[in-house]
Amino acid sequence: MLPRIQEFESTRGRVLSDDEFRYLWAELADIRLEVAHTIRCEILLGGQRFLQLLRATWSDYDTTSQTLRLADPKGKRIAAVPHVLPVSRRVAELLKDLRTCNGAGEFIFSTTAGDKPIHHTSLPPVFAAIAKRSVAKHGVDVEPFQGRDIRRSVETRLQALGVSREVRAQLLSHGRTTGVQQKHYERHDYLPEKAEALTLLEQHLTMVFAGVPKQGMRFSRESSRSAQVARSPRVHARREAKAVRGAIP
């Protein structure tokens, strides 16, 4: 019998505080750029699963539509389900840097010039070191955290910002069933709603990283119920980009 691995047996509830998120983002400046940008992209793309994100190749990134296609193989599926994410201007800048580092190879998130993706088992030591350095630098007790804790923390903030459970499920690829209704009838890709949610998240995190008090930003309930948003998410993103450009290092 194989031994149980406690890390995957237990249910975690760890959610990073705003201060811990700020320390995490600040410490990324002191680690290898490819790894730091991978973590930055994971956060700004809504807390995607590292296992899915790290498999992304340059062929999955469409610079015309500004989307990144991941593959969700979770559940009893014959083939992985495409998971498409809108790419903000800030994430596009991160990907541009990674193209300089890894454009010669296949994989976006790599430390081998794109030849092989970053392995997910290399990230826990990075997070452990960040938590340890935060304690030393800021004199606060930062509990060790994992990649899935970042994902949970991002979704918790999306929930607090008013993003509906349905939109969060689409954005984070939760429980996407393959029943008759979804397979044959549901064709809305949720890209407008995902874009609005990610814009709101980026605005919020920009203030968190800068230590600015929380503001009353909320997700548009109207756009979460409708296939068409009241205003184009690309126009919205361009307007908000002026406020956030340069605010996130």
Description:
With 249 residues, the chain is mainly α. It has one domain: Intergrase catalytic core (hpI Integrase, Chain A), CATH 1.10.443. The protein contains twelve helices and three strands, in the order ααααβββαααααααα. A hairpin with a 4-residue loop joins strand 1 (61-62) and strand 2. The longest helix is centred in the C-terminal third of the chain and has 20 residues, at 191-210. Residues 1-10, 183-187 and 221-247 have low confidence and may be disordered.
Short note summarizing the structure:
The protein contains 12 helices and 3 strands. It is mainly α.
Strand content: 5-15%
Given the C-alpha coordinates, what overall shape results? globular
Top-tier CATH class:
Mainly Alpha
Can you tell me the CATH architecture? Orthogonal Bundle
Helix percent band = 40-55%
* Quaternary status: single chain
Distance between the termini: 48 Å
Q: What's the total number of strands?
A: 3
What is CATH's topology name? hpI Integrase, Chain A
- Largest sheet report: 3 strands, antiparallel
Radius of gyration, rounded?
Answer: 18 Å
- How many domains, in number, for the residues? 1
Tell me, rounded to a whole number, the average pLDDT: 81
Structural class: mainly alpha
Low-confidence stretches: 1-10, 183-187, 221-247
CATH superfamily: Intergrase catalytic core
Number of helical segments with 4 or more residues: 12
Helices and strands, in N-to-C order? HHHHEEEHHHHHHHH
**Strand line-up in the sheet with most strands:** 1-2-3
